[in-house]
Amino acid sequence: MWGWKVSVSGYRRPRSSDAAIAFAIAAAALAVPADEARAADVYEMRLPTKVTSVRQTVNGSFAVFGEEAFRLDPCPTPEGLCLSSAPFSETSVNAPRNALPGGQIDIADAGDIRNAWYGRPTERYAHGALGDDVEGGSLIVVTSQGKKLEFVLPETQVFEDITPRITDLDGDGNNEVVTIRSSQSGGAAVVIYGLEENELVERAAGSENGAPNRWLNIAGIIRSADGTATVYGVRTPHIGGRLFSITYQDGALNEVNNIATDFSNHVLGSTELGLSAVMDFDGDGIAELVLPSQDRTRLRFPLSDRLDIALPAPVDKAIIATEGRIVTATEDGALLIIVP
């Protein structure tokens, strides 16, 4: 393996690129003195086959190369992770027939709602942010007692999403379902559903983006010590990318908009919604959110004072956190392992 230091002025070409390549990038802004900057090592692994996706499952973290997948295991190398052969299967479960095509079931191990997916596929909302005009017309859940319930949207709304997210937002022991719902008048909003008297109901809705075909993508859900959780998302990730947050407690939703700008956690037309990760990178007990800049050439940490990390090329694969590293891949299929 060959490695070389990359300056902020550009990338140096390796003397050989036939095998995996590693390099380090100083993640410092030009205006920040070197003694105040936090350095990050970025290792670019150019392998014989291009990475088609990055996945995190109950069996570990994987780099997928078409039909093949290799697990990222700890090893005594500078990047700290090596590829090894291991059985791979997706953690998520495909939704039943007549559900949203390509949609999956979210599964919870505890709480009153155990399964959730989108049903009643429809083409009544012509946007195509996720690759086609087929969106969900209903939300379906299965309770801890095995009862299936459905919430059907009106003709003016769709779920412009792939998989709903089950979590206990208010810490009361009962689950909520976090969704992305779009309307023909106002675009996308975060909408929260839950159980009430054995029925699936809308609990609360965040603000819409203000115009049709203006989407948002959820970036992460961070849990607090008191058992509550905060939902973070990016409004219009293809146009400016504004970070916002939502909390839900005592039946009320609180929304904080414009926390920061210049983010994008989605590529227009892609079904990959996972261009973000949540992890306590330095062991201080505080979870951090990491997601790309608008042009996807930098990793940004909007909830901490950690500096942006420059990348060798735009990323378009999922971002995962494992073994204290951040793993993703570029548009041209190079695997990136980042030590923040």
TrEMBL record:
InterPro entries, alphabetized: Integrin_alpha_N (IPR028994)
Top-rank taxon: Bacteria
UniProt protein name: VCBS repeat-containing protein
Provenance organism: Oricola cellulosilytica
